[in-house]
Amino acid sequence: MPRTGMEPLRRKALINATISTIGERGTLNVTVAEIAGRAGVSSALAHHYFGPKEELVQATMRQLLADLGHDMVNALHQATSPRERVSAIIAVNFNAGQFREETVHAWLAFYVEAQNSLPLRRLLRVYARRLHSNLMSGLVVLVPRPEAERMAEAIAAMIDGLYIRRALRDGLPNPASAISLVEDYVTATLKQQAMSQ
């Protein structure tokens, strides 16, 4: 393969290595040399593609968001009702690609670092707004807008909380049980709303 064709592959390898390295350490306190070594490239090449470590970390987070967005679009295209939209959003957040150990640890490290990094905080806001908007697109058809807003906030909090619990607990929680917990909340709240009308 020509050298120019290698750049996207090396960039992807560096991003994957960043996720793995951060996930293994549970912190962003890693070096470009460690990441480059895991990716099988030199530190100089990593710096050439991404510049300083902060740029590589931001590119990694953007890739995680892009992967989540791609999975979300595919899932939402298959949903045929507002309730299915809500279920699709919940399921995507806990699918095998998103809820694997290293990705969960990387997300937790990004959340912690976002307290001191404006670019990471902005990326997390993008994620939060997208999640809220996607949830509202299904919920607002099912319940009055104030209740939809409250449910969207609760679902997002449950998703974030289950990621944190997975990152902090030994062993691997079952993604199906995480989905079930959130789905139980949605079902119970929708039933309560229907009874109160």
From TrEMBL:
Keyword Glycoprotein: no
Residue span(s) of domain HTH tetR-type: 8-68
Pathway the protein acts in: Amine and polyamine biosynthesis; betaine biosynthesis via choline pathway [regulation]
DNA-binding region(s), residue ranges: 31-50
Signal peptide (from-to): none
InterPro entries reported in the protein's UniProt record: BetI_C (IPR039538), Homeodomain-like_sf (IPR009057), HTH-type_Tx_Regulator (IPR050624), HTH_TetR (IPR001647), Tet_transcr_reg_TetR-rel_C_sf (IPR036271), Tscrpt_rep_BetI (IPR017757)
Keyword Transcription regulation set for record: yes
Superkingdom of this protein's organism: Bacteria
Keywords carried by this UniProt record: DNA-binding, Repressor, Transcription, Transcription regulation
PROSITE patterns: HTH_TETR_2
General function of this protein: Repressor involved in choline regulation of the bet genes.
HAMAP family associated with the record: HTH_type_BetI
Protein known as: HTH-type transcriptional regulator BetI
UniProt organism field: Aquamicrobium segne
Record gene name: betI
